[in-house]
Design brief:
alpha+beta; 86 residues; 3-stranded antiparallel sheet; two-stranded antiparallel ribbon; 34% helix; Hypothetical Cytosolic Protein, Chain: A; globular
Length: 86
């Protein structure tokens, strides 16, 4: 039996299997993007694939604090689109 990697959602604080979370990554240039592969280089933060968790993250500035950078509105829109499609 394989060990399931667990990660913590920055908005809700829940520990969930990595596959149930969305990875948001900040690269060396300070650009923030959604990492669908889960393997991109840079500082990562995990967010539950749920619109409620996204709204909570925006309200608490959880992603900005975790990634230590101002997050543009376009990134939040991309996260919302990925959650809606998923």
């Amino acid at each position: 039996m394989r060990k399931i990697p667990m990660r913590k959602c920055v908005a809700t604080g829940e520990s969930l299997p990595k596959k149930e979370l969305l990875r948001i990554v900040r690269n060396k240039e300070g650009e923030v993007s959604v990492d669908l592969s889960g393997k991109a280089n840079g500082k990562g933060a995990y967010l539950k694939k749920d619109l409620g968790a996204l709204e909570l993250a925006i309200k608490k500035n959880a992603l900005e604090r975790a990634l230590e950078v101002k997050i543009p509105e376009t990134v939040y829109e991309e996260i919302k689109r990925v959650i809606d499609e998923g």
